[in-house]
């Protein structure tokens, strides 16, 4: 699978890594892990952005990126409308193409399952999906989300928020919202809810139409470090409550920022990954109790708990480690 260009680079263990998507997960997270390890990175952004183009146009743009950057590794993640030609081109040119199936769940992983047929190596956040890939004869391993200590870090600022939630109002989260979010709203806790306007969509099964003052609009990813640093409680939400490893990106990021303490509906994955570093209520009463506990803490004690959680994810769940997984897969795959 080595090209002439690749041979030169591997002699010094340095790679050129091209990312086919420009999502925050790439720009601020895993791409920076490769950069920290002294690999060159190229993110397909601006004129090279793929996700809003037709498949034919994607292939044309990708060819230009390959010619200009000459990557030794191409890295793609859960972009449903990828052009198959992108993967075919890397195979034709002998370029290692890794795919990160970040939307896998134990019973709903069609995106990752489809693109695994094209990728050279599959990473998934969901351990239960690995047998599916292995049974297809694919090389695959677990790779969780993480944090970037250079980005997900605490900002010294005043506490201006009691409770915050940054999440889209997905239909699959309706029960979580009913049991863990609406009770806080109904009891008039000082909670600010950010996300797309599905929160005030009357067609949604659960919404904030009767409580519009709690909805604060969309919150950009770039604003999260300041928001979480200036909050006491950060509410979490997840799409899956079955997997032992699958979570959203948020727990890693909240803990990495080291501001507000995470209170998130219990899942086996969060308990397995974060132990007692997060609050994991199993019902409405526990949610209220845990939120009250954090709100009533002294600023110093809350800061100590946040620092302990931050130190843990910085050590065990940083994106340098995730980048090393990809490099190891390249050499061992």
Q: Which properties best describe this structure?
A:
333 residues, alpha/beta, Rossmann fold, 2 domains, 6-stranded parallel sheet, 4-stranded parallel sheet, 41% helix, 13% strand, globular, disordered N terminus
Structure notes:
It is a single chain. The chain has about 325 residues and is α/β, with parallel strands linked by helices. The chain folds into 2 domains: about 160 residues, Glycogen Phosphorylase B (Rossmann fold, 3-Layer(aba) Sandwich); about 160 residues, Rossmann fold (3-Layer(aba) Sandwich), CATH 3.40.50. About 40% of the residues lie in helices and about 15% in strands. The strands form 2 sheets. It has a 6-stranded parallel β-sheet with strand order 2-1-3-4-5-6, sandwiched between helices. The protein has a 4-stranded parallel β-sheet with strand order 8-7-9-10, with helices on both faces. Helix 2 crosses helix 13, helix 3 runs parallel beside helix 4 and helix 9 packs across helix 12. The radius of gyration is 21 Å and the shape is globular. The N terminus is likely disordered.
């Amino acid at each position: 699978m080595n090209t002439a260009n690749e041979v030169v680079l591997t002699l010094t263990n340095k790679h050129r890594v091209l990312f086919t998507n420009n999502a925050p997960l790439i720009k601020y997270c895993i791409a920076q892990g490769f950069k920290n390890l002294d690999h060159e990175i190229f993110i397909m952004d601006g004129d090279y952005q793929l996700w809003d183009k037709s498949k034919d146009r994607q292939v044309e743009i990708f060819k230009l990126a390959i010619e200009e950057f000459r990557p030794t590794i191409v890295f793609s993640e859960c972009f449903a409308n990828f052009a198959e030609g992108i993967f075919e081109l890397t195979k034709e040119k002998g370029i290692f193409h890794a795919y990160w199936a970040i939307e896998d769940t134990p019973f709903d992983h069609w995106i990752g399952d489809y693109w695994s047929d094209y990728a050279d190596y599959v990473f998934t956040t969901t351990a239960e999906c690995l047998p599916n890939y292995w049974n297809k004869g694919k090389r695959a391993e677990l790779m969780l989300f993480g944090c970037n200590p250079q980005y997900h870090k605490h900002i010294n600022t005043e506490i201006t928020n009691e409770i915050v939630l940054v999440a889209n109002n997905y239909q699959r989260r309706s029960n979580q919202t009913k049991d863990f979010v609406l009770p806080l709203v109904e009891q008039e806790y000082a909670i600010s809810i950010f996300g797309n306007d599905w929160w005030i969509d009357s067609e949604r099964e659960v919404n904030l139409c009767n409580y519009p003052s709690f909805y604060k609009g969309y919150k950009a990813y770039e604003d999260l470090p300041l928001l979480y640093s200036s909050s006491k409680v950060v509410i979490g939400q997840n799409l899956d409550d079955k997997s032992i490893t699958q979570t959203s990106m948020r727990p890693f990021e909240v803990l990495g920022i080291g501001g507000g303490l995470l209170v998130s509906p219990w899942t086996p994955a969060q308990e397995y990954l974060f132990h007692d570093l997060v609050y994991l209520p199993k019902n409405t009463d526990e949610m209220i109790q845990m939120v009250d506990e954090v709100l009533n803490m002294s600023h110093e004690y809350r800061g100590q708990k946040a620092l302990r959680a931050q130190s843990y994810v910085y050590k065990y769940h940083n994106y340098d480690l995730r980048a090393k997984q990809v490099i190891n897969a390249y050499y061992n795959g």
